């Protein structure tokens, strides 16, 4: 079954170009140019990925992404004509998984799309394997526990002092990856490649931003972290 992509952009020419190229790659594509319709399609079409323009009539891309994140974990790739760093940070803050500035090469866009969908498939397969292994061994699914912090891959859920932590999809994936490599020094580039699946054009500031957000949620004092340690000139190390 073809993976489904929802394209949300009010530039008709770009909308049609994106749809044409995505369909050539074998994806099932729906398009729209306004936020309200996009919100409806996101729930009825149930896409595997959403390409979302920032500047939309009615509900803009930032607000739409924020609304979608309330009940959906679908990967979102934001598209914008603005190249300000603050826009990128805001996009990530509201839950976007990636961010591209117009004009962009169609080749790079397709590479990002394939990487994001590949990452989703990998996560789904990992969870399925864990559940099957648990069923066969008649034991509970693997849960990582570090003092008052627990991470449950099968539920895609993390808890601190027994309370569920509100994590965006990419924040959870990053935390899980760090937990799986406890004690290891991980470079920003390696984290990008493994968590975002970027082996091209990666922006290491994306990692720094997500690390900061994680620290605010799991560290007692984010300014003096004891769980996620910065290794100067090398990257990060998770101590648990």
From TrEMBL:
Keywords: DNA-binding, Phosphoprotein, Transcription, Transcription regulation, Two-component regulatory system
Pfam families: Response_reg (PF00072), Trans_reg_C (PF00486)
UniProt cross-references to PANTHER family, sorted A to Z: PHOSPHATE REGULON TRANSCRIPTIONAL REGULATORY PROTEIN PHOB, REGULATOR OF RPOS
GO MF, one example: phosphorelay response regulator activity
Taxonomic lineage from the root: Bacteria, Bacillati, Chloroflexota, Anaerolineae, Anaerolineales
OmpR/PhoB-type domain sequence ranges: 141-240
Residue ranges: DNA binding: 141-240
Organism: Anaerolinea thermolimosa
PROSITE patterns: OMPR_PHOB, RESPONSE_REGULATORY
Keyword Phosphoprotein: yes
Modified positions (4-aspartylphosphate) in chain numbering: 53
CDD domains linked: trans_reg_C
Protein name: DNA-binding response regulator
Example GO BP: regulation of DNA-templated transcription
Domain Response regulatory: 4-117
GO cellular component entries: cytosol; protein-DNA complex
Top-rank taxon: Bacteria
């Amino acid at each position: 079954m073809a993976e489904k992509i929802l394209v949300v952009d009010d530039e008709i020419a770009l909308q049609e170009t994106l749809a044409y190229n995505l369909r050539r790659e074998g994806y099932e594509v729906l398009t729209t140019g306004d936020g309200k319709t996009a919100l409806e399609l996101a729930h009825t079409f149930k896409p595997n990925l959403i390409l979302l323009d920032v500047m939309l009539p009615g509900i803009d891309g930032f607000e739409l992404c924020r609304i979608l994140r309330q009940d959906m974990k679908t990967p979102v790739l934001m598209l914008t004509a603005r190249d300000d760093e603050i826009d990128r940070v805001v996009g990530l803050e509201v839950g976007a998984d990636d961010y591209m500035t117009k004009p962009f090469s169609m080749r790079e866009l397709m590479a990002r799309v394939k990487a994001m969908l590949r990452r989703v498939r990998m996560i789904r397969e990992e969870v399925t394997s864990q559940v099957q292994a648990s069923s066969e061994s008649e034991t509970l699914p693997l849960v990582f526990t570090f003092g008052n912090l627990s991470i449950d891959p099968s539920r895609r859920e993390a808890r601190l002092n027994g309370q569920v932590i509100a994590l965006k999809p990419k924040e959870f994936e990053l935390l899980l990856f760090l937990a799986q490599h406890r004690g290891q020094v991980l470079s920003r580039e390696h984290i990008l490649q493994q968590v975002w699946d970027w082996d091209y054009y990666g922006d290491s500031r994306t990692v720094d931003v997500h690390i900061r957000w994680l620290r605010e949620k799991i560290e007692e004092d984010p300014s003096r972290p004891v769980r996620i340690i910065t290794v100067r000139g090398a990257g990060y190390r998770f101590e648990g």
